[in-house]
Amino acid sequence: MTFWKNAPKLLETLLNVVDSLNRRVEAVITSRTALQFIPHPRDQQNRPFLHSVSLLQSQFQNQGNRLIPDAAEERALMYQRMFEGQSFYEKLNNVIYYDLFVPEEERHASALSRNKEALKAELGLWEAHLQKSPGSFLAGSSFSLADVVVFPTVAYLFRFGLSAGRYPKMGEYYALLKDRPSIKASWPPHWLENPKGHEALKDF
């Protein structure tokens, strides 16, 4: 019983630690003469994105929309979705870029099949996340850092042919965010030139 009574305070302490770590990352980065990312040694590909998102949020937190919720519960959910989003991105890449990342002599149909099953499971997880969300966004009723991190993956999914009919909540989420001014301004130019995209995920 004592643990559960103290749970809100423990959660707030944890969030303060995370915020402190984010500020330390920013301090290390901005102390250098040129902007450099600090990737985890076991993941040179994706972790820098979280660092740069954290840096930009901290640098411009008093401009535009507030991207970190005030409520502790929503803030905890935001951080959870941010870090889960990296796994989502990796599982997508393991399917759509399999032929690019894996040398021809090392490719196996069984491996690609496992990658596809892992992505399908991940899609089901995120569809459920959106179904259970207390608002239209990943961490509640307002746009947050979780959406900044995860939406590019969602955009790639639909770019590569994912069906909104099979994943209706993800389709609604994509439709809601893609017309935000900040997202429209950062849309890849070649996507505008060729809106059709690909069909690698049309059967998912």
From TrEMBL:
Note one Pfam family from the annotation. GST_C_3
* Segments forming domain GST C-terminal: 71-204
Q: What is this protein called?
A: Glutathione S-transferase rho
Q: Which organism is it from?
A: Oryzias sinensis (Chinese medaka)
